[in-house]
Design a protein that fits this description.
The complex is a heterodimer of chains A (187) and B (234). Chain A has 2 domains: 7-92, Rna Polymerase Sigma Factor, Chain: A (Orthogonal Bundle); 106-186, Arc Repressor Mutant, subunit A (Orthogonal Bundle). Chain A is 75% helix and 0% strand. Chain A contains 8 helices and no strands. Chain A has helices at residues 2-9, 12-44, 47-63, 74-92, 114-128, 131-141, 147-154, 158-186. In chain A, α2 (12-44) runs antiparallel to α3 (47-63), α5 crosses α8 and α7 packs across α8 (158-186). The longest helix of chain A is centred in the N-terminal third of the chain and has 33 residues, at 12-44. Chain B is rod-shaped. Chain B folds into 2 domains: 3-49, no CATH class; 103-232, Protein Transport Mog1p, Chain A. Chain B has helices at residues 3-12, 19-27, 29-49, 57-99, 105-115, 128-137, 219-232, and strands at residues 103-104, 153-161, 164-172, 177-184, 189-190, 194-196, 201-206, 210-216. Chain B contains 7 helices and 8 strands; from the N terminus they run ααααβααβββββββα. In chain B, 50% of the residues lie in helices and 20% in strands. The model of chain B has no long low-confidence stretch (mean pLDDT 83). In chain B, α2 (19-27) crosses α3 (29-49). By secondary structure, chain B is α+β, with helices and mostly antiparallel strands. Classes of the chains: A mainly alpha (187), B alpha+beta (234). At the A-B interface, α1, α2, α3, α5 and α6 of A face α1, α3 and α4 of B.
Chain lengths: 187, 234
């Protein structure tokens, strides 16, 4: 505590440490906040909750920023914090957001072009996907992680992760094709 | 690589770059088609996953962090101020406790005589009953009193010995005036039997209720008064 105090008032060298920490944090926020927010959103299915989780995640990240040695690992690090934060939400047990109520999903249809309609449908299907299949897919598509990295993040073995990715894609593909058919027959 | 394994891998990650996998894609046109389909699906999924992010989210995140940092600093400052205050408080207390440390009565008595030098020049011709009344008014003396007039009393007054209310008398010795201090017994007082400086001689003793200090120019006078006090002061 006293060391901190001295840092601020006496030693400019150390206060520039603080500055560079701030800069590091700012660039972390700028580079990764969108991915983190989207990941949180697809985890919980609610924009406000996702924003809260993102806030908490970044605050924790700030507090622990010194423990992040390698900036390349920043994304995985943040995701780990986020997953823990999301799990804590259930421990706190406030509201029951648990199974994603997909009616809250972004409604772009009002502006309806065909592409947006399709996107809306895809979103619904992603939301309906079981969380255990959805999460590895999110990590792969939003996070850009490899199978091994996902396995490490989710504390699962690689085969389980790959199986879930396989099921996630097949389910989505099937659902979307079914929709296509229905859409065509309706149209 | 068999067909089943290829399909599994394609579904697991259509962007797989393993040489085996790539070879298998090129081996058959339908494999190529499947991969294209899956890549297409992935593109759609990736686009669908890109929900809008509030434009100010990044700013909010930085703001929250800075507010928290600010609070932390304020808490630290508060803590430091509190620390400084308690240190000051402790220092203050210990200084006043130091004042309660041993008091050298002799030194004080001499200083008092020099300071209140008018006492040696006035003649109030005090009766011992008046002195007794003053003694009685200082509660620390218990029932101490003079049983008779201790010779001529020129001067009587309360005085202060480091916060202890005491009595200051000037009596007539055989040759010269003698100053007499009667100080309530208190543990932290230290009394020398005899003391002196360039001008005055001093002598101290203890009665059951009080310290008595005598200060005068003549040693014989001191002994004389001492004997007298011992007889009539109870």
């Amino acid at each position: 505590m006293f060391a901190n105090w001295r840092k601020k008032s006496v030693e400019p060298a150390v206060s520039s440490d603080m500055l560079s920490k701030q800069r590091r944090y700012n660039s972390l926020v700028k580079a990764l906040h969108a991915d983190i927010f989207r990941y949180a959103y697809w985890l919980c299915g609610d924009k406000h909750v996702a924003e809260d989780i993102t806030q908490e995640t970044f605050l924790r990240a700030w507090r622990a920023l010194d423990s992040l040695k390698d900036d390349k690992a920043a994304k995985a690090w943040l995701i780990t914090i986020l997953r823990r934060e999301n799990a804590r939400r259930f421990e706190r047990k406030q509201f029951d957001y648990s199974d994603v109520e997909q009616d809250t999903l972004e409604d772009n249809i009002s502006n309806s072009s065909e592409e947006q309609t399709e996107q809306y449908l895809i979103r619904r299907q992603i939301g309906k996907l079981d969380i255990e299949y959805r999460e590895p897919l999110l990590l792969q598509l939003i996070g850009g992680f490899s199978g091994d990295e996902i396995a490490e993040l989710m504390e699962l073995n690689r085969n389980t992760v790959m199986t879930r990715l396989f099921r996630a894609r097949s389910q989505l593909k099937e659902l979307l094709e079914k929709n296509d058919v229905r859409g065509q027959s309706n149209g | 690589m068999d067909e089943l394994k290829f399909r599994r891998q394609a579904y697991e990650d259509p962007h797989n770059q393993d040489a085996d996998f790539l070879a298998q894609i090129n081996a058959k046109p339908e494999n190529q088609a499947l991969i294209n389909e899956l890549k297409n699906l992935d593109t759609k999924l990736s686009n669908a996953l890109k929900v809008d992010v509030a434009e100010d989210l990044a700013d909010k995140l930085i703001l929250r962090q800075q507010l928290q940092q600010h609070h932390k600093q304020r808490r630290q400052t508060f803590f430091l101020v509190a620390m400084a205050a308690s240190v000051a408080f402790v220092v203050g207390i210990s200084f006043s406790l130091l004042r309660l440390g041993p008091i050298d009565l002799a030194e004080h008595a001499l200083a008092h005589v020099y300071h209140e030098d008018i006492a040696l020049h006035v003649d109030q011709n005090v009766n011992f009953s008046q002195v007794n009344a003053q003694l009685a008014s200082i509660k620390d003396f218990g029932n101490a009193k003079f049983t008779q007039q201790p010779g001529k009393v020129y001067y009587t007054s309360y005085c202060d010995f480091q916060g202890v209310k005491s009595l200051h008398l000037v009596l007539q010795g055989e040759q010269s005036k003698v100053t007499l201090f009667i100080v309530p017994l208190e543990k932290r007082m230290v009394l020398d039997k005899t003391f002196a400086d360039g001008k005055y001689q001093g002598m101290g003793f203890e009665t059951p209720d009080a310290f008595i200090l005598l200060i005068g120019e003549d040693q014989a006078d001191l002994s004389y008064i001492k004997d007298e006090i011992k007889n009539i002061f109870i």
